[in-house]
Predict the 3D structure of the following.
Amino acid sequence: MAQRILVVDDSPINIKAVALALEAIGYEILEATDGRMALEVAAETLPDMLILDVQMPEFDGYEVCRRLRRQPAFMTRPILMLSANNALHERVQGLEAGADDYMAKPFEAEELQARVKALLRRANPPPVITATAQGKMVAFFSLRGGVGLSSLSVNLAAGLNQIWGGGKVALADMVFTGGHSALMLNLPLRTSWSDLASTEPDHIDEEVVQQVMLNHACGLRVLPAAPRPDQNERITPAQVSRVMQVLRAKYDYTIIDAPHNFNETTLAALDAVDQIVLVLAPEIGSIVATTCALDVFDQLGYRSDKITLLLNATFERGAIARKDIETALRRPLGMIIPYASEFFTNALNRGAPPVLDMPTKPLGGLLEEWAFSFSTEEDTKRPVERPSPALQRVLQRLQQRRKGRA
């Protein structure tokens, strides 16, 4: 059953704008055009969430919010306030009245959708899944396309696999609108996520998941997305959560190539991982999208140390300076990948990631060391009897740099 959201605004146009944005992602919209009507409709229908305009006849949004919060049924239901005035004192007044979040009008539909999903999810958190093993899980995420998520995911997974040995690393492509991980590794799409769609979550076990994973020659295991969106649309959040549990129990490292949205299946994966690498390019649209994603992560209750910002230099000239990006985001960049578009394009066309294809070249070496930085403390501290060639190269380069600084 669709979750119901009561939208309260004295402007039919504003109600329509909110309804269009939220009905598009499956919510049922209830309407009220003034404060008194809002209280009546809320009492009759008990919506899952309310979106209140501030300036309304009868009672303003603040008063409606205060009256609702005094009722037991609405003490914890999410309330989002919308206002044309984004002044600090207005936001503070809304939060003091009991609102969970505050957005300015006009709004971007994607941001409204993300905030609504986050508020509803925080009010109804998913059950905690206890895994039987503690392999590390990393997701690459961005609300903006074209920043290199798939290339980074593939190279990290392949790099970790080369460093720590075959069979210990999995790559899960969750870009259900048409992922390219299998293409980037030159793997034929014989099976995919879509083969799990008809399996109940309780019946998804290691054997079932292994049957739909592809095996790369280097030993990396890949769970690809089907090439067409309609083939993936039956995958449910519960199935994703179960697959994440199975992968964590089976592999030392699982890398997730996540889609550019906050759909329920995406959130199921992001909830499960240990680290989210939030990727951006050095341009204003990417910075805005990153700011929105950070806000949603905060509303979801994710720890700040779960999020790592990665700047991927996807173009050669005209980039916004690092210090300006960090100032805008009010967070330091944790990682930077330098411009190497030509190499990544050639790698895509050939199905040969640079970390595998050119490990002794500068880009391949950089990607090897970058992959090594994701290694668990347990792996980096334990003695390795027969280190892989990739691990030997990484340790040798690190040792040479330490000597150079001495």
User: Anything to note?
Assistant: The chain has a mean pLDDT of 89.
